[in-house]
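Risk register update: the risk of archive-format incompatibility is retired. Evidence:
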Amino acid sequence: MGKVSLIDTGLRTGRENIAHDQAMIDAHVDGDIGDTFKFIHFKPCALIGRHQDLSQELKLEECARLGVQTVRRVTGGGAIYFDEGQLGWALVCDRKTVGGSLTEITQKICTAAAIGLSKLGVDAQFRPRNDIEVGGQKISGTGGFFDGNTLMFQGTVLVDLNPEVMMSVLNVPAHKLAKHVLENAAQRVTSLKNLLGSAPSKDEVKAALIEGFKQHLGFEMVKGETSQAVEKLAVQYHTQEIGTDAFVAEINDPARSPGTLVGSNKKGNLKAYVRFEGPRSKRPREVVFTGDIFITPPRILMDLEAHLRGVNIDKLEAQTHAFFSNTDIGLLSVQPAEFASALMDAIK
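Archived output:
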């Protein structure tokens, strides 16, 4: 196993952190940086996944009232709340460094993180599809994707959490609570402080994670510094795109337009929004998919939406299946057939 540079980017806003993520991905793709593992610290923010509906996932008025910044990630997955009581981490590396499909890589990385967290005195375990749990309660969520041969994979550790603040800014979907037979999301999560009686220091948590990745994946961590080229690129991305309200609200209440049809898959974690060219038209003007989706590369979902525009209603289902069969796509949370299912549910 080659060396992995270890950095800590310090306390930043959510949007600044995501811009830095994207800058690291692009720098790795271009060969400007090598494999890197970083620790991330957030000011209070509510982050949604790349393909989620902003107003569906977050209580925007409460976010504004509490000064919680809204953020859209470049990775998929669900909405999370972050503040100084949590610790983030991310791995940007060649996909061969870990090896396997996105599902296999998720299991390897989550197991490494669970081994590390267990060194703090808790029994942390990987739970498919992408969580780390202690006694059935979530202590860490993860997610990632490929950009060419570059893997971006990130996770959280709930060191000290105020569940009341989390519940006040997140709209937790009913299907997630029903899956775990819970009344609210606060029952679904826990923190190291709750489990251990007091919160370990961030340095202790970082050291434990490092040991977990060394032990399970054979990483040789070498202390480094964040690249100035990456920092410059991160500022550019933050200013021009990721830090803007327009990017965060890129998907926001797609059903607000009159005549929009809405459907979902059976699990309820994927929605399809369809608008036709006219009341008697059989060809969609617009198709949008949203949800707690891990799909790689992330931009492929926009390609699917474009692929389905103007397709005759009788051929939409077949064209959806054909798109997935003819494209190299990695999926973690949903299967190709579920996109067709959600689409046809909307049309029905």
